Amino acid sequence: MLTLTPSQVRLGRSAENKAEAIRLVGQVMVESGFIAPGYVDSMLRREQVSATYLGHGIAIPHGLPEARDLVRQTGVVVVQFPQGVAWGEEGHARLVVGIAAKSDEHLQVLANLTGVLGDEAQSEALAHTGDVGLIVQVLNGAGTAPEASASAPVTFEGPHLQVLSPSPHGLHARPATVLVAVVRRFRAEVTVHHDGRQANARSVLSLLQLGVRGGTPLTLTATGDDADAALRALRDAFQSGLGEEASATPAASAASTELRATITLDYEGTLVAGLSASPGIAAGPVWAFQRERLVVEERAADAFQEHRKLEEALAGAAAELRQLHDGFLKKAGAQRAAIFKAHLELLDDPEMLSETHGHIDTGLSAGASWRRVFEDRAESLAKLAEPTLAARAADLRDVGRRVLRPLATVLEGEATFPDHPVVLVAEDLAPSDTAKLDPAMVLGLCTAGGGTTSHTAIIARSLDLPAVVAAGPSVLDLRNGQHCILDGDAGVLVLKPSERDHAKAATHRERTRVRREEEKLERYRPAITLDGKRVEVAANIAEAAEAQKAVDAGGEGVGLMRTEFLFLKRDTPPDEEEQLHAYRTMVRALNGLPLILRTLDIGGDKHVPYLSLPAEANPFLGVRGIRLCFEREDLFRTQLRAILRASKEGPVRIMYPMVATPEELTKARAITESVRLEVGADPVETGIMIEVPSAVMMADRLARDVSFFSIGTNDLTQYVLAMDREHPVLAPQADGLHPAVLRMVDLTVRAARKAGIWVGACGGIAGDPSGAVVLSGLGVSELSVAIPSIPAVKALLRGISMADAEAVAQEALESGNAAEVRALVRDLLARKGAKA
User: Fold this and answer.
1) Residues whose CB is less than 8 angstroms from the CB of residue 50 and which lie 6 or more positions away in sequence, other chains included
2) Paired sense of beta strands 217-223 and 75-86, if any
3) Could you say which of 56, 357, 455, 738 is catalytic?
4) Catalytic choice (62, 343, 357, 359)
5) Given 446, 484, 629, 762, which residue is catalytic?
6) pLDDT of residue 673
C-alpha cells in the first residue's frame, strides 16, 4: 500500500496561475524521485484534454498515458495553496495532489481523497492547516472511519457468492449494465459488497460508485424466493467477463452478412454517432453555433402533472437511445454500441427515479428534481479515483440533458464566429440561420437533432459541407476549440482523434478531391446512361446569385427556386420590383435554360414574423404553401406579377407548393391567369409539387391541368410516414428511400405518363447516390439537386444503364425498409464499378 509521507507535502505556497502551480507540484514530484522532469510537460498537456479539478478546492494534475515511461516510481505529492489558484472555469484549487502513476498503488490515497471531497468542512480545513501531519493522516486513511481488516473478514449469512471483477477495467459502465440486466431477470434483491461498501445491483450508478478495479474480489448477497437462481446466473455472467470478452470478439452470424454493405468504422478516437446528412470529411476545432442553456422552473403546484412530465421525458430519451444503439450497432459493432445500452440503464436506474419522484412530491418541478439528482450523481462519479469510472460522469450528464431538454425552457445565446475555420456544432439550423453562416469559416456541420431531410442537411448539401445530424445533446457540451474529425460519409463525429485517424481522414479527403476534379472536367456532359437514356440534372437554388453558379456547375436549368428565401431575414415583404429584379437576374444568368419558380412556401417550419400568422398546434398540417397564398392573396398576386413580367425574357415555369386537392389547383391557376392578363404576358408552363399523399392519389386528375409534376421528397416522406422531419426522435427515420415513399413516387410517375407530362424530383434524395439511381429507375426524368452535387450525380448516371436502374427500382418497391433499398443500390454500383 502506498503511503504519503511528510516529505511529500508542501504548505503555504502561492502561484499566479494553474501552469505555475503544476510546475511547482511537478518540482516536488521530481525531488521525491517519482518522475523525470519531462513528465511535467505531460501534466500541462493533460489539462488541455480533461479537467483535473475535482471540487471543494481540490485538483489532481497528472500526466498523459503515453508519458508513463517518464514515471520512475508510483507516488503522490500534496502542495497547499491557501489563497487558491484559478483552475480554469471549474473553480479555485487550494489543495493540489500531483500523481505519478506507474501502477495502481496510488488509488487508495485517491479513494481517501474522494472521502474528503464529500466533506466540505474537512477539505476547507486541509486547505488552510499548518499541520503537515493532518494532511498525511487524512490521505493515508487514518482520519476516516475504520474499516474491517483483512485479518477479520466480514462474514455473510444466507445466499452469497465470491467473484472477481472483470479485467482489465473493473466494474465500469458496460459490465455494470450487463450485471444489472442479469439481476433484473429475477425478483431477488442483490447487493454487491466491496471494501466495506455496498451497492444495489439493480442500479448502474450505485455499482459505478464502488470504484471497483479489474480483478478485485467482490461478494454478492441475495435475498428473496429466487436468490439462489439469481446468484447462479450472476456466477455464470462473471465467469464470461460480464460481456467484456464477448463484445471484444466480433460474432460471425447471419447479421454480419446482412450488414455487408454498411460502413465499417475503425477510428481510434471517441465516436459520437449520428446520421450522414452530407458527404465528405472535415477536421478542425469545434465551435458552438447555438450554445443552449437549459432553464427549469424550480417549483410546480401540480405534482401529478410533474410525475407525468418526467415519465414522458424519460420515454422520449429512451426512444432516442434505442435508435442510436441500433444505428451504431450496424456501423461499429456491438462493443461500440454498448454504451447506448448503458445509457438506457441509467435512465431506468431505480435509485435515481425514486429520488427524483421524491423531490417532485416535495413541490419541486420535474425538471428541477431530475437536474438535482443527475447532477449530484455525476459529480460523485467524477470524483472517483479510477479514471475509467470517473469518465462515466460525462455519460450521465449526456443522459441527464437528454431527459432535461423537454422539461426545460431552452435559452439560446447569440452565436459568434471565430476568425478561423471550424466544425460548427448546433442544436439544429433553421432556414433563417443560413444568413449567419460564413461558408469560408465552416469546415462542416454537426447537429444534436434533425434528420437527413432536415434544413441542416439541405443547407450542408447546398454549401458542399460535410454534415452529421441527430448526434444527440452531448455534442452541445463540447468545448470550443476541441479538435475533432467530422465524417459525413459514415455519420460520426470523432473526438480526440489519433494520428492514425488524422491520416485516414487526410487520405479520404485527397481521394475525394481527385474524384471531384474528374467530375468537374466532365460537368457539362449530359447525364446519358450506358444504354442511351437521358436524365436532366438541374439545380435547387435559394437566391438570384446562385443561378450563375448552377450553370457553372453543369446544371441544365433550375428545377427549384425557393422564392420564400426572398421573404426571410427581413422586416417587410419584398415588393414587386425587388422580386422582378431577382427573377430577371436568374433568367438572364440561365441564358435560355428553364427556371422553375416555386411560389411562396411559408408555414410549417418556416416562420416570417412580419406576416403575423396565428400560432398553430400542428403547423405542418395548417396554413402553409398554397393555402397561405390564398390567405394572403395580396402577396401571391404581387409575386405572380413579378414572375410573369420576368417570363417575357426567358423560359419561366411556375410551380405551386403543397397542393392537396384539385380545387386548390383550380383556384391557383385562376388567380395566375387573372394576373397574366393584367401584365400582358404569354402563357407559361405551370406545375405542382407532389408533397402530400392526397396529391399522389389524385395525380391522374391533377395531371390534366398541369405541364409537369415535381416530387418534393422531403415533405412527402414526412407525410407518408407520419414523421416530422425535425422531430428529435423520429427525424432520423424519415428516409425518402423508404419503400412506402417510393411507391408514392411510382404511382405519381404512372399517372403522369398516362397524361403525357413529365415528372421531376427536387427533394434531398434526388442528390443522394441511391436516390438518384432509384428515382431515375422509377421514371423520374429530371433531378433537381444542390449545386455542388450536380457533377457527381451526372457522373453517377453516366456510369450505369437505365435497365439496371429500373431493375433496382422494382426491387426497391418490394423491399421492407430504406436500408434494404440503399443496400440494393450499393450492390449495383459495386458490380458496375460506378462511383457513389
Assistant:
1) none
2) unpaired
3) 455
4) 62
5) 762
6) 97
**What whole-number distance in Å separates Cα of residue 624 and Cα of residue 433?**
20
- What does pTM read for this prediction? 0.52
- The predicted structure's pLDDT at residue 735: 86
Do residues 308 and 487 touch, judged by C-beta distance below 8 A? no
- pLDDT (tens digit, 9 = 90+) per residue, 152-195? 445 677 788 888 888 666 777 668 878 888 898 898 899 998 87
Phi, psi at 785, each rounded to 5°: -130, 170
Residue 446 annotated in active site: no
User: Quick check: is 194 catalytic?
Assistant: no
Sheet holding 492-495, edge to edge: 270-273, 492-495, 483-487, 281-288, 422-426, 442-447, 467-469, 275-278
Tens of pLDDT along 314-353?
Answer: 988 888 777 767 665 655 455 556 666 777 777 878 888 8
Higher pLDDT, 151 or 509: 509
- Which cell numbers hold the place of 417? 464566429
CA dist 644 and 310 (Å) reads 55
DSSP state of 432: G
End-to-end Cα, the chain, rounded Å: 60
Catalytic residue among 56, 106, 169, 172: 172
Instruction: Look at phi and psi of residue 196 and say left if phi exceeds 0, alpha if psi is from -120 to 50, else beta.
Output: left
Among 479, 370, 377, 462, which Cα is nearest to 425's?
479
Catalytic-residue membership of 62: yes
Sheet with 197-200, strands from edge to edge, namely: 160-164, 217-223, 189-194, 197-200
Told to judge if 128 belongs to the known catalytic residues of this protein, a careful annotator would answer: no
Dist. CA 405–CA 412, nearest whole Å: 13
